[in-house]
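Suppose you are handed a protein chain with no further information: no name, no annotation, nothing but its sequence. What can you learn? This example shows the usual starting point.
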Amino acid sequence: YKINFSSGIVTNGYLLDCDHIADLIAIKCDSIQVTLDGPKHIHDARRHLRSGGDTFDTIIKNMRKALDCGCVHAIDLRINVDVLNRDSMEELLRYLSEVFATNELSISFGIISDTINKDNVKQQIAKIPDDTLAEELCSLFEIAEKYGFEAQEFYSFDGICILKSRYSFALSPDGRIYRCLSMVGREDLSVCKLQDANPKIDLPGYFNKQMYKSCIDRDCEFLPLCHTGCKFDAIVEHGAIEENSCKYEQYCAVNRYLMQ
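A reasonable first move is to predict its three-dimensional structure. Written in structure tokens, the prediction is:
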């Protein structure tokens, strides 16, 4: 149908072997995001196999294969950070700088936040407190630079995500379509299954100018970066996707640091 599209995969990396890499190349997958929860001893304790087996070493080997096969030039490495593992970040970044060229990884830090359970009840976990979050992020960026990883030009947590893009979506392995990555796995938040999808009605956009009113009224300089904030956070914090999730102070502090 001559439709231009792009695709990427978010994966724990454990099954990113040569056969699956070949499949990704065949469908022109142009981005791979792998998530780690810390250095080996922490990651394996948190994200082990059902049998209890380790996963960290296999993930690192698979990342190496994906790069060597030319599937992507760099892997988007998402490092999850909370109060329980933040002190191990330097150990992880030092290790990564020893096994990968620094331009082979595009590193971002996923700050663990509150979520909701299957009954849509807010669940608090070991997240870094809001009043120290900016300071913690600046410290993480400083450590990453210490080991040669390129700093972000600016810090943006939200922006134009797939939820706000009219024809973007996340697809889970069971064929369910979601409008937000944070909703994946929550079947009640799936819009439909792939074989039943009608993009005209099943992919509603949330690029709603009414949501921008409060940002425009305060003449917020970060509006072009955050676009009213994370909609999943809005559900967790306010119980409504139409509300704003404002992180103005955090944007100010972190971007001031990056500019300096």
